[in-house]
Amino acid sequence: MTNDRIERIVILGGGTAGWMTAAALGRTLGATARVTLLESEDIGSVGVGEATIPPIHWFNELVGIDEATFVAETKASFKLGIEFVDWTRPDHRYFHPFGQYGVNLPGVAFHHRWLKARREGLDMPLDALSLPTQLAYDNRFAKPASDPRSILSTLGYAYHFDAALYARYLRGLAEARGVTRVEGKLAHVERNGESGFVTALVTERGERLDGDLFIDCSGFRALLIEGELEAGYDDWSHWLPCDRAVAMPCARVAETTPYTRSTARAAGWQWRIPLQHRTGNGYVYSSQFVSDDEAAATLAANLDGEALGDPRFLRFTAGRRRRAWIGNVVAIGLAAGFLEPLESTSIHLIQSGIVKLLALLPDKSCDPALADRFNAVFSRDMDNIKDFLILHYHATTDKPEPLWEYCRHMALPDGLIEREHHFRTTGRIMVETDELFREASWLAVFHGQGIVPRGYNPIADTFDSDTNRRQVEQVAGAIARAVPALPRHDAAIAKLIGATRAVA
User: Fold this and answer.
1) Which residues have a Cβ under 8 Å from the Cβ of 177 and sit 6 or more positions away?
2) Does the pTM exceed 0.85?
3) For a tag site, which of 20, 419, 481, 487 has the least CB within 10 Å?
4) Is pLDDT of 384 > 90?
5) CA-based angle 100:161:81, to the nearest 5?
6) How much is the average pLDDT of 314-326?
7) What's the pLDDT score for residue 45?
8) Where do the CATH 3.50.50.60 domains begin and end in the chain?
C-alpha cells in the first residue's frame, strides 16, 4: 500500500503569517510531516498587525503558548476593544467592546430589553451596560470568569503586541518542534507538467526545496498563488478606498490603555496601539485625497510622544484572491487578500486560513473538492468582514471631506443593506453561526455610527415594564460597582510578567 499522506510541506515567506503557519503545522503534525520555511532576512515583513481580536486565544492554545511568557516576550498589553473617535461625526466617540452587553437573561437578547426600557423613559447609555467598555475607559483590566453568575463572565479580551517579536517567538517554538528554516530568496518554481502542481522551490543559491504541499506566505507579492498560478483578485477598493498606510512608533508617555484607538482623519483614519515599550501609530489613507508627504506629516503631528523611527509606507488594494487554494498551493495571510486593520482582523485572517487548512488537510492528491470548500468558506469570512468595515465608512454625518462624502453615498453590498434594514426596523442583528463578528460587535458599530432602530423584538413586551427596567438598572449597577474594584491595566501586566520571572 502506497503512502498518500502529505510528508513534505514548504512555506514560502516568514513574518507573522509564515511563522504562525509553521508553528501550527509543527505542533499539529509533529514528526509525521517535514515542514520547511524559506525566507530572506533582506525582505522585511509588513508588521502592522499589532492589534488582535479574541480568537487569538484559540491559536495561542493550539501552538502551546503560555500567556505569561507570551506577554513578556512580545511586550504585549491587553485589549478590551476599540475606541472610534470622530467617525460618526466630529467630536464624537464610541467603543466597540470585546464581550457582551448586559447579561444573558431568558426571552430576548439583552439589548432589546434596553431598547424597550429606553422607549419607556429610561435615560441610560448603551455603554453603561458593557463591562469591557467601562473597564477600558478607567484603564483597568480583568480576565473573564467562567461562572455565568459573575458580571466578569461578560468580558472578552485580546492583545496588542509587537508583530516582529511575535514572529520571532513563534519561530523559536516552530524550530523546537522540527521546522527547518532556509535563508534565501526564491529564484524559480518547478511544476509538474501534467498536473500543474508545484513540485519544488529553487532558491537563488540553487537549493531545491521539494514538497507535497506549498503554503504561500509571501505577502502582497503572492509569488505562488498569483505569480505562478494566476488566481485572480477581487478588487474591493470601490467600497474600501484607502490604499496606503504610513506607520511610525513613538515613545510611551502615560499609562498603557487597554484598547486600540482609531481616529478618523480627513482622508482616512489613524491607529494608536499601546505596547509595554512603545506606542504603535499609523495613518491608513486614500491616495486619491492626500499625498504620502501630507499623510506622514499628519501622523507625525498627532503622536503621543517622541517619534522612535522614520515613517514606513505601505501600499495595498483591499480585496481577496478569487481562489486562495489552487492545486497543492494554499495562500495564507496577505497572499490570500487584504482588509485594512480597522477592526484588527489581519492576524485573525492568518489564523482563519490556518484553521481551515488543518480541518481540510489533504493527501498528496490534493482533492479539488477540499480546495473548493476552503475557498468558499474563506471567501465568506472575507465577505462578512468586508461588510463590517464598510459600515464604519458609510454611516457618517457632518463629515464634508471628499473621502467621507464618497463613502456616505456609495452603493453598498446587498448583505450589508439587508443587515442595516433589519436593525433599523426591528433592532434585530442578523448573523450566521460561523461569522467572526457577533451580535455585540454589530450592535456597537450600528449604535456608535448613529443607526437608531425604530423598534425592538416584540417578545420584550411580554416582560413587565417596571421589572424589565429594574433588571436593566441592576446590571448597570453591577458593572459600576465592579470597575473600581478591579486592577489597573499596567498593574495586571506587571503581575503577570512578575509571576513569569519568579518561576524563571
Assistant:
1) 23, 26, 27, 30
2) yes
3) 481
4) yes
5) 20
6) 97
7) 58
8) 8-50+162-234+319-383
Mean pLDDT score across all residues of the chain: 95
C-alpha dihedral sign at 129, 130, 134, 137: negative
Distance CA(380)–CA(391), nearest Å, equals: 17
79, 116, 356, 386: the active-site residue: 79
pLDDT at 499: 54
With cell 430589553, the residue in question is 113
CB 442 within 8 A of CB 429: yes
497 Cβ neighbours under 8 A, 6+ residues apart: 68, 71, 72
Residues of the chain with CATH 3.30.70: 244-315
What's the pLDDT tens digit per position in 328-366?
Answer: 999 999 999 999 999 999 999 999 999 999 999 999 999
**Domain 8-50+162-234+319-383, CATH number (from 3.50.50.60, 3.40.50.300, 3.40.50.2000, 3.30.160.20):** 3.50.50.60
Which pLDDT does position 42 carry in this prediction?
78
**Which CATH class for the 244-315 domain?**
alpha beta
Residue 41: the pLDDT is: 86
Query: Cα–Cα distance between 63 and 252 in angstroms, integer?
Result: 31
Q: Within 13 Å of residue 484, how many CA atoms lie on the same side as its CB?
A: 3
> pLDDT at residue 1 above 70?
no
Please state which of the ranges 42-56, 97-111, 296-310 shows the lowest mean pLDDT. 42-56
Distances (CA, A) of 80 to 13, 124, 174, 261: 31, 21, 29, 11
pLDDT reported for residue 2: 54
- Residue 356 bears catalytic tag: no
Q: Closest Cα to residue 381, out of 336, 335, 423, 439?
A: 336
